Amino acid sequence: MVRAVRGMRDILPQDARMWRHVEDMIQGVIASFAYEEVRLPLLEFTELFARGVGEATDIVEKEMYTLADRDGDSLSLRPEGTASCVRALEESGLLYNQNQRVTYAGPMFRYEKPQKGRYRQFYQIGAEAFGFAGPDVDAELIAIGAACWKALGISQHISLEVNSLGSNEARIAYKEALVAYLTPLKEQLDEDSQRRLLSNPMRILDSKNPATQGLLKLSPQLPDFVDEESKAHFQQLLKILDAMGITYKVNPNLVRGLDYYTHTVFEWVTQDLGSQGAVCAGGRYDGLVKQLGGRNTPAVGFAIGLDRVVLLCELVKLEVKQSADLYICVLGDELRSKGMILARQLRDEMPQTSVRLHMGGGNFKKQLKRADASGATWAILYGEEEAASGELSLKHLRDVSVGQVKLRVEQIAQRITSSI
């Protein structure tokens, strides 16, 4: 038997209902902030991510799925969405002297060690804002995250961490000081940190190794290198968050793993999913548009990790709508076509109600068991007696006090919709 590729997984019906609910809730919140949707390709030229994400990052060095097409071009499955989003808007002329607020969703791909909450094909919903230099748009994106967690009922399981990386020049100066401090201590660092020392030293701050964290206690501190303009931007952001009642923690070791970040960075994290704590991360990347061939354009955005948000929603036992609202039980082969006509009529009259028609035969008792298992709220019994009288039996499956009533077809839609 052919099996799924390691790190790729199927999302089956019993789980897909939760996924659809989470996606709809998050996308609904983002849409309420008037962010416009863009749809991006899965494949891009490898150069896009090498230039945008950073050649020395773990993503580009060892995590991308890269292939050569028949023309010999190097292509990669997208490992993240921001670089693709910038490329799409810049290529289409939508960033020159314009402001844009956009959102996207879909699978990303990284060759990582699979574990709970971390997969080689994973799903993100992102939001990006271009052309806004002030801290107010940073706060707006953070507020979108807060609104998403509230809508899903998981706010108490997620906390916000924020930091400022300063300008690009400040970041470079800090990197140099950090490398100078850690180089004599290289042999005491964990293996990943030794590799990152020359390629991506700021990622060492993210190390989970206790010995490495111990060495970092006496290392140069990033806030000491942040320029005054960036400090003012960050303080304004914190004031806005305070005014909005959004609780946060300033984490000076929060640096993010992608080279394009400057100034504000933030993460929404949880303690309830083990080591996979980040459920949403983002920040400001004012230099990325120019780096990819455009003009200097202030920009900020985030990506929500759907895999982990779904895990949190399952943890809090979030209730989601079943696939069927109304289940039609039909008794007798001669009524099968009339049952299909009835189902079509009810779907037309109640477009927001899902209707499932029983198939496979069996008596009413057997069909009602199927109806109950489907999660439907209502069941219609349609047999010879109902066909002769012109009235159908409508049964409430979740509240015995409502019981069962006889109604004509045109009355059923009114009865069901009035109870919602």
Annotation, overall tally of beta strands: 16
Rough outline: elongated
Q: Strand order, biggest sheet?
A: 1-5-6-11-10-9-7-8
Main sheet: strands, sense, barrel:
8 strands, mixed
Query: Low-confidence parts, pLDDT < 50 over ≥5 residues?
Result: none
Please indicate the percent range of residues in DSSP E strands (runs of 2 or more): 15-25%
What is the arithmetic mean of pLDDT? Answer: 90
Describe what you observe in this structure.
It is a single chain. With 420 residues, the chain is α+β, with helices and mostly antiparallel strands. The chain has 15 helices and 16 strands. The protein has helices at residues 13-32, 46-54, 58-63, 82-91, 135-152, 168-182, 191-199, 210-216, 228-244, 288-291, 306-315, 336-349, 364-373, 384-389, 409-419, and strands at residues 36-37, 43-45, 66-68, 74-77, 100-109, 121-130, 159-164, 249-250, 262-269, 278-284, 299-305, 326-330, 355-357, 378-382, 391-396, 404-408. It has an eight-stranded mixed sheet with strand order 1-5-6-11-10-9-7-8. A five-stranded mixed sheet has the order 13-12-14-15-16, sandwiched between helices. A hairpin with a 5-residue loop joins strand 3 (66-68) and strand 4 (74-77). The protein is elongated, with a radius of gyration of 27 Å. The two termini are 46 Å apart. The model has no long low-confidence stretch (mean pLDDT 90).
